[in-house]
Records
---
Amino acid sequence: MQTQLDQGHKVIVFDAVKQIHLDLVAEIGLSSFPGIIFTGSTGLAKSVAELLKLDVPSVREDFTTAAQLDNILWLYGTASEKAIHQVDYLVTRTSCTKIVLEAEMLAKRMSKRLLFQMAADAADILKKESLIMQLSPKSVQGIGYATDDVLKGLTRLTLELLRIQKPGCLFLTGGDTADAVLHEAGVRYLRLEQELDCGIVKARCHGELLDQQLIVTKAGSFGSHDILLNIWQRLTSTERATVEK
């Protein structure tokens, strides 16, 4: 690593195969390179936390305890073709309800009355079943307004909904979407709990509106066509639950 840094490299990437490889990366980084910034999976985070002697809860799969997970709120802040197919595959095979949001409406400054009514209508659904809120792909194509305004509108609507009704799990798709919602909700930090699939992490929020809220994050177009269904089955399965020892 030192040789690479001496040659002017600012970023060093390791392709780890086993947990012991991540343990080694964490040990070398902490012992020899003060100020290093680790970026990686929950496995690397676990290795770093253990070396720093942080309180890391032990997590195991318990196949005898039934999972009691309330309804899931799926927030899809991306309108890519692959993401649309993932959502449609989930909807056709589960009891999830989908609400399609027009980007133009979100980009405009909605009145408080309209915002509350939309959030209340969504909350009524979420009380009964899992809900997907997704951007309309047609409304995003060739838009004549800033995408930042669309994101702000989506975030405002989501937070208003969460004030009315909290889900058993909040599923955030898209890095910008997750960052905006968590930031505006006042989340100070996340406690990582489990990697549900490659690149898809389950965590617990800490701070203000979403304190103790269970969330799952996923990159916008990441994963296979059935990835959402696989995650839904893992989160709602009555055959096993994730519990702390």
Note: Residues 212 and 242 are 16 Å apart (CA to CA).
---
Amino acid sequence: MLNILYFLMSTAILELIIFVVDNQGFDYDGPMDYDCYYWDTLIAMPVEDLWASRCDTVTGKITIDSATNLTESQLEKLFQNITTINGRVLVERTNLKRLTFLKNVVNLNTYYSAYVLEIIDNPFLTQVNLDKFTSADGMVTVRGNPLLNASKLCTQLEKIVGEHWRISRNKVDCGGFQLDFPLTFDSILNVPPNLTFIHGDVIFRETGA
């Protein structure tokens, strides 16, 4: 009887040890590393409170906007080791002149959003560095930056994301005609008569005719 009881207790202890070991590894070996996770507007704080210095991949939604009080050099230092971003980077309505902090990013992957990068309505922006960017599986938008010559991005994005990009209303876009309005009897007069190629989506909805 004692031998049977001892055997059952030993088995239970062994199973408990296996359970504890398995669950200790779960937090570190799973797909989500919360030390490399951020979902908020970037503001100045100790770097370790944003994500761990060991991170080369960040997951989440990173917003840089008018509330962000990080300088260009601080952003560049923060992202210096980041090569992959799983999620969405939104740079909107900032006073930044140069976006150099993305220069080491190679991969932009979707995570709870169809967009991976949006650069929108930055009145002083003149430069975007995506020097090592070679892979993306989501949408990229560069729009409404009145001092930005975005023409260099056009060929790069065409090769990387195919049709999933939009560049419009910057100082210089990709050339050609930007069809950025619904077609009506009046607005169709703004379409060049020799237009032979449309890049993007053409959607026909019920007109009532």
Note: The chain has three helices and ten strands.
---
Amino acid sequence: ETLKARAVLSEVLFDDVRDEQHQREVDLDARHDQKHGWAALHAAAASGVAEVVMCLLRAGANPTLRDDHDRPPYYLADTKNAKAIRNAFRTYRAEYPEQWDWTAAEVPEPLTEELKDKKRDREREKKRRQRERKKVEKAAERQRQEEASRAAAVAEKAAERERKAREEAEAADRVCHSCGGGIVGTPFTRLEFRYCSTGCVQMHKRELMAEAALRRAAR
């Protein structure tokens, strides 16, 4: 569509429409496309060149003219530059509100300087909100990272305490219950006690028996 539009525009020599003499020679509303029934303004809108649209409008091209598919030029502004094309129509309508039947041309409200200012204000406000949202998101992410770091530190300390407790428990299992010395190799056991030698086993046995006798005598 864009290539076709530019071909149509080349036929009407749109580069020269600013020249008054040429305007008298060229019928800007003539149909130059047999497939769609486009006039120059249709082709300009479809081509995506806003400057050409404005030039043709100022030269007197009719924005209410419809092609063979009953579409006014404004309807064809669907290229990647559509926003600029539509703004050109709306700006021209603001400058010349009585020149054409803009309702028939399907051109929406005129784009006045006041509306442009409001639009710029909305865009600035939108960007401001986006910046604020990014700040909030960054702050939230920073807080999540800090909380994750604190949680990791707490978990690390808990793991360290558990490791030390396990080491202490393991060390306690290697202490003789009689002499208190370290147990080397396989410990000797009696009941729930561990010993480093058979001598300690017998000594602790006598101590336990003596303690039991004292408890019986005290009753």
Note: Residues 13-24 have pLDDT under 50 and may be disordered.
